[in-house]
From TrEMBL:
This is Uncharacterized protein. It comes from Strongylocentrotus purpuratus (Purple sea urchin). The chain crosses the membrane at residues 22-47, 53-75, 84-102, 108-127, 139-161, 167-191, 256-280, 292-314, 321-337, 343-365, 377-403, 409-435. PANTHER family: MAJOR FACILITATOR SUPERFAMILY (MFS) PROFILE DOMAIN-CONTAINING PROTEIN, MONOCARBOXYLATE TRANSPORTER. Residues 196-205, 214-223 have a biased composition (Basic and acidic residues). GO terms for cellular component: plasma membrane. The lineage of its organism: Eukaryota, Metazoa, Echinodermata, Eleutherozoa, Echinozoa. One of its GO terms (molecular function) is monocarboxylic acid transmembrane transporter activity.
Amino acid sequence: MATHQSEDSKDPWKYTIVVSKFVINCIEVAISKSFGVLIPVMINILSTNTKTIGLACSMPSAWMNIACPAVAYVLKTGVLTPRMIALIGAFLSSAFLIAAGFTTSIPELGLCLSLTGVGLSMGYFSSKVMLNEYFKRSYVLMAAVANLGSATGAFIAPFVIERSLEAYGYIGAMLILSAFSLHAIPASATLKKPRDRPSKPAMKDDNDDETTGSEEKLARVEDDECISKEEPKSSTGCLTNLKEWLKNCILIKEPLFTMALPCLFFTSVCLNAWVLFLVPRAEWHGIPSSKAVFVSTAGGTGGIVGRVFFIALLYFGANPIVLSCVFFMLSAVTFLADPFITTFPVMCVVSFIQGWSVFSGNLALPGYLKYSVSDENFTMAAGIYGLVSGLGGISGGFLGGLIKDATQSFTTVFVGIGFGFCFLEVNALLFLLALRRKQKKRANDL
């Protein structure tokens, strides 16, 4: 489908990298889904409103993505290895998640959860880059397998945290959530580069100095008169620099990637809003919290089943972009039907379907990244991908809470998510058409 002709690594350690990515994904979603259980308690403890707490609780997921360009830059410079970056991040995220449980104000909570997200970003992004290093050809399939960790976290964490909240209170539940995060330490320790890939030299070649020196020498000789290559800076020079920057800008070099960015943004908006407000919505309908948590568990179960089904389809050669179109449409229908979903059994069934479709649609996003950029631009594109997803995460939590406070209705929030998926459907179809056109043009050129 794409032009990436590199083969997968033969190093057997590649399967350990998949497990590590699985664990890190599990931790990230476990934290996000757990806040869905904790939000009603946090509103009372911190004396705040849904809008503000929704924004604060979206910080870990948001900053995990927003910090990706910075992590990408550090990886590209070779200052730290992926393993070292991930280990620092694992300690950082766990420490500040522990601190978040003892905060008494929204600014303190927001700061701690933001730094938790920065720590998560170091492991999340490093493991993503390592996965691409080991699986050049089958990256989309292996990313889908590793993303089963997200559905596993969504399935297990809300139930555990809800029981912990009853047994140990808010602080105890936050400490147990921090224990989830500590599992990122052994996962990070496994990240190392494949043995059968040539290591990229961090230092310049010895000939670079000679080349640089020769460029600084006289450019040409005319009539025995030396004319220096250097010229005073002028507006023409600034224009040339701007043109050069635009020429090398990844958003211009990779137009398909630019076209995919709205899809990445709104998928994150819809996913984060659904994850945060699924349990509070059930409680808003009068369902006790001890039962409402099972609505979230049903969503996590649907996510696991849907992802296994999605991986099977990918294995047999299905197009992930086409699959995303199907799942975006299914998600739109279930969310737009929210006014008719008011009883506990129906909520559980619909949550299962939504978990299947929302998580499966999210699983297709690595395909948008892989098929829209070349291998040499993958690291920086993945960083921008994370940034856009993070901004979407913040927007999802904040806008969901804002709509709830303005309308006093979670139904309006979920119908809004449905319209978001309608936009995603249109964006995905346009991306698919552009991708097919590009592939057809490349085939004709050959």
